[in-house]
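User: Structure tokens for this complex, please. No commentary.
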Amino acid sequence: MRTIVDLISGGADIGRTRVFWIGFGVIVLLFLLYPTQASAFRVSNVSFYLLNIPLGLGMALLWGYCGVLSFGHVAYFGIAGYIYGIIAGNMSENTLGPLAGVAGGLLASAIVAGIFGYFVFYARVQKWIIPILTLVLTLLLETFLGQTAGYQWRIGSVLLGGYNGMTGIPWFRLGGFVFEGYSFFYLCVVVVLACYFGLRMLVNSNFGQVIVAIREDELRTELLGYDIRARQWVVFVISAMLAGLSGLLYVQWGNYITPSQVGLLQAVLPVIWTAVGGTTSLLAVVISAFALNWVTFTLSSQGNQYAMVIIGALLVVTMLFFPRGIIVMVAEWLGRLIARRAPSSQP
Amino acid sequence: MEPTIVIETRSLSKRFGGVVAADNVNFKVPSGEFRCMIGPNGAGKSTLFAMLCGIESADSGRILVFGQDVTRMQAFRRVRLGVGLTFQTNRAFHQLTVRENLTIPQASANLKNKEAGQMRLEFALDAFGLDPDDETKAAELPHNQLHWLEIAMVLVGYPNLILLDEPTAGMAPEETLQTAKVLKHLNSTGLTTVVVEHDMAFVKDVAQTVTVLHQGQIFAEGSLADITAHEDVRRIYLGRA
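Assistant:
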């Protein structure tokens, strides 16, 4: 029976040595200390970079580990965000409203992904069609939400708002404690760490090994006695819930959500974060999701209209020169360098 | 007392467009037998295997495994009944390590057969020279070891019946001999074995019964001596000496 430590430090992700974990701890500590040194504005920006990481991790799990590419995971981001807004907005007088909104948002993204995934995987839809179907789902959602501008699109006291979006979404709160500003930053840190360690345990478990086997060869895996459709479906739902988690954090961050969050541009971003970082590493995707959000956010906030062009160019460079992802290939290179030096340092 | 029938087909048929891959095949393998299936290319051997393990569905007829009708059963459920299969083209997980290849099938192992299965697995790993803790990528293994690794992966599931599609394809004569030696030993422990093979030296070494397929039908069946003496089999497949 493997322990939690074995599962976290297993070989399914980069970074297993003591030096790595010391470095990891230092970086987490720096994050925890960041609000003491930075302005509220900068802390809010970093919260934004962090809140997108679960979406990226979901894509890494689904695409990188299970071999199923989705171009529509932002649909679950949007569903969770909108459902949270509807529930928490209608229960604004109730202290349990935001908690109910979180539960409802996650549940809604899981249910939609469960139904969609059931038809995709149990009908044995060919793998190359799945990205198209997922993209269609998110574009349909965007189109639907875009036409909800009228007063008739009111659910309880909450207006869906069409392309203007849903505004005034309440902060998340537990009892009397409201997560806003610095506390929201810490909430993001905790959520990211929980998702990262949870997924490390998952990919190092027997279940994780089987999903990697499915990625490598579906038929061989089935003929080792595994129901591959059930496992693909479970992974799809988990990754959709991770996207939903990002959606929930997003609506806390800005207190609004618009249909563009489930549009084509947003749909492509998690795929780019995963490809640039490296599909076979959770850590690489954590780093790339954070870094690329920082790049796009910084460029966009400075009025640079070429932010997406730069991100697109980065994807092309990655595909041409770093097919396994920039961070993964750099980590492999560092690993080889350390291994070469280690024997020579022996007496 | 009649031996238990491990796998059986009744009037099994399959067509691919105008091509008849299986035509009213009635095939029966008793428990503990080492059966070889031979026949010219396109005779329907691999299609029959694909139907037996559930990769292809039959147009008509029935398939029974340990007396249970599995004709419409999903492939993974048949594996859980104790059927293991290796492919004509090697399908070990090439990008994973030897250890991972041997760990992945563990969770679906047929635990009712654990005692015998564990002994068979340990024997095969030892005889094939495979280390279950080896962190070498499967893709880096020599051709013969890659085939042996896939056989070992199937044995991790503790099957009662193994279907091997050309297990010695591309092997050197001494590697073929080693494969035959291991498979014969596994069979001697009661593991029912069905092999599709073109290498007649291998077939002569291992087969207790030989089934000859031709144009999707069972053309002849019997002991090796019967088959090699069969005039029509010599004409269509073995060649006249």
